[in-house]
Amino acid sequence: MTGPILLTGGSGRLGQELRQLMPDLIAPPRQELDITQPETLTACLARYRPAGLIHAAAYTNVAQAETDRDLCWQVNVQGTRHLVQATQHLGIPLIHISTDYVFAGERGNYREGDMPGPPLNYYALTKLVAEEVVRVHPHPLIIRTSFRPRTWPYPVAFTDVFTSQDYVDVIAPDIALAIQHWADIPDDTLHIATERKSVYELAQRRCPTVQPGSRSQARVPLPADSSLDCTRWQTLKQAWSLAHA
Ligand SMILES: NC(=O)c1ccc[n+]([C@@H]2O[C@H](COP(=O)([O-])OP(=O)(O)OC[C@H]3O[C@@H](n4cnc5c(N)ncnc54)[C@H](OP(=O)(O)O)[C@@H]3O)[C@@H](O)[C@H]2O)c1
Q: What is the pTM of this model?
């Protein structure tokens, strides 16, 4: 891809990791690019003339979204709509970062083509609607993923919630690889995560003192098993590594 790549959400957990891995990414701060204010987006696209856009900005506080619905919708749905409208008009390809929470989590091991929903909480609803907004774009790539900060942030982790999420410093290099190979990805949806495990098992890897808990303790309904089947991603990665061997 020739030309700069613009990143939204560059100050976030994932965005900061991506910027370290890909220092050429252009990541305007919110004062310069507020996705709820379309005129700031138009100005940025004219200023940087990006060859592609990575959309990692979102309202991500799952518990707070239950009561802060208007802002969550404005950022996750309307903000994404502004990006789609502006980039499709200029023929700029778009990568949208989505979540495993688009699935209800009744059975896990979800493949890209599986029907999402019904969403279990308001954040998940907005992320699912945002995916459908993005599918209007002629060159979309929706990356569904899930990650935690580098260190486990809570005293408790749930033994009865299953996930393929991982720590952000494990997930971000794969997302950076996907960005680098963007032109070689034939699909419009890609699951990037690691193997299925309980959240407790994941937490123990970096916080051996973490206590076991249950999802019944959560302040908001959470999917029981939102693990993602990542075969498509693993196959692509293997093909690229063979091509470079
Ligand atoms: N964290 C997870 O567990 C997880 C799991 C699956 C998928 N995801 C998805 O991954 C992506 C990145 O998540 P994250 O955890 O890295 O996010 P985060 O740490 O919560 O950061 C959110 C980012 O979005 C920006 N943002 C919020 N509202 C904005 C607006 N109106 N205009 C411009 N920027 C705005 C924030 O900017 P400010 O610094 O200015 O607030 C920040 O850079 C999101 O799409 C999220 O849905 C996250």
A: 0.98
